[in-house]
Write a structure and sequence with these properties.
The chain has helices at residues 11-26, 32-39, 43-54, 56-60, 70-86. It is mostly helical and 91 residues long. It is 64% helix and 0% strand.
Amino acid sequence: MVRNYKAKKDIKLIEVKINEAVSKIENKSFSVRAAAIAVEIPFSTLHSHLMRLKYLAVVKHVGTASYIPAEYESKLAACVKSVARWGFPFT
């Protein structure tokens, strides 16, 4: 069976095109679809890149520890220690 080789696309060239499209969108001279057509990249590629830029702050803070005041933290630690000592009552 013969396989057809497809060379990988130049990633730096695509990044340049995406940055050009983003600048056109930020200047409000083009819509997302028109900018994608103008720089000759797929609409879905540009749209997903814009969504990543838009929600970067949300993705960045996932997994951070929340703040618990000291008095609640000590009560929570005491409860966890008592459960560990005596076992969970609902097993």
